[in-house]
Amino acid sequence: MSKQFLLAAFIVILLVAFRSREKPLFVAPPSWPQPHYDFNENPLTASKIALGRVLFYDPLLSADSSTSCSSCHSSYTAFAHTDHALSHGIHDSIGTRNAPALMNLAWKKSLMWDGAVHHLDLQALAPIAHPAEMGEELQHLTLKLQSTGMYNVLFKNAFGDTLVTGERTLKAIAQFMLVLVSAQSKYDSVMQGKTQFTLQEKKGYRLYQQHCSGCHAEPLFTNDEFAYNGLPADPKLNDSGRMKITGDPKDSLHFKVPTLRNIEVSYPYMHDGRFMNLTAVLKHYSTSASALPLNNPKLSLPLPLTPADRVDLLAFLLTLTDKNFLFNPDFAYPKKIIEQATKESERLRK
Ligand code: HEC
Ligand code: HEC
């Protein structure tokens, strides 16, 4: 073998090794269904995701610079809001719903508890414009971003020039939302044959398959549909859920089936945050009669779950916690990106 050949082979090996160290931007787990989101409409790039991440953490997006997306969606709690049952926005205003956990959004056909939003690219408009959330106008926000040196750098990196538009802003935020994939829980390892459930978890998994999987279906732990799970309406909030959108009385009190992934950390639970812990949720399913007729073959209340069953079921639910997702440094406050972009903008100004 010639020396040149060996050298060439060595270089190829180095290149392959280097490339495989580069993390792909979005990984759909092989056993999952195809994502609903059309990535051709908004092709992911590292610099757009970085811009979206900075925007997500920036209180500049609210009218009084007090509230960022992350104020209500914290990475350590699967991007849910755990201090309050109902969301808190600018001027201490209180919203009417519990901030849901954010993950695996590329697979969702509609967003919000009632499905009011159909496209992830438009989702961020809702909290930005909402008077009790961020209370800002998109037009005004683009002007604020345009006059910030750091965003000139970040928009140029992402889009090739410094122009800030509403569409660019929303698409960048959507890109950050899309990469929030949670698929590395103990449950996933068990399904891949890498580890095993304990006996108790296995019993809990069977109970889940029997009683819960009709709506909270594997592998996403939601069927992405609207359903009524038997709760009485809160008389103060009087939230009719899906009926608000369709006007159909059959949809009254129907809400989007939330995922059970990372359910351990995304308390409080339900659209209005009425339950503080999973024990209270399981008590509802196993001791309450339905407040209204259920008319759903997937659920009849109360479910026949003994206190021991509930403990087993809880043990299974805890296997859905994904620490790699919750503590992923790529999802946390983007300190380094902000520092670098700020430094770069100062250099350009000189
Ligand atoms: C004041 C608290 C608050 C702020 C700030 C906020 N959100 Fe939310 N978010 C909520 C609440 C509450 C809901 C559920 C609203 C509903 O169902 O009507 C929600 C829903 C969502 C959803 C839908 C998730 C799903 O599975 O249906 C996404 C995505 C989202 N928010 C992203 C964002 C982004 C991006 C920002 C910043 C631009 C943001 N949120 C700012 C409270 C907030
Ligand atoms: C008929 C469909 C259906 C079945 C079956 C069902 N659920 Fe639900 N579940 C829902 C809906 C809809 C909600 C949201 C209701 C709301 O917000 O008012 C929900 C909410 C939850 C929540 C709160 C999630 C959050 O993020 O706030 C948990 C936990 C939960 N269910 C667990 C279970 C368990 C455990 C079972 C089986 C014992 C089960 N569910 C069976 C439809 C169902």
Topology diagram in text:
Elements: H1 3-21, H2 46-56, H3 69-72, H4 120-123, H5 125-129, H6 138-146, H7 149-159, H8 166-178, H9 186-191, H10 199-211, E1 226-227, H11 243-246, E2 255-256, H12 278-287, H13 307-318, H14 323-326, H15 335-349
Antiparallel strand pairs: 1-2
The structure holds heme C (2 copies).
Describe what you observe in this structure:
The protein is mainly alpha-helical and 350 residues long. The chain has two domains: 39-181, Cytochrome Bc1 Complex, Chain D, domain 2; 186-324, Cytochrome Bc1 Complex, Chain D, domain 2, CATH 1.10.760.10. It contains 15 helices and two strands. It has helices at residues 3-21, 46-56, 69-72, 120-123, 125-129, 138-146, 149-159, 166-178, 186-191, 199-211, 243-246, 278-287, 307-318, 323-326, 335-349; strands at 226-227, 255-256.
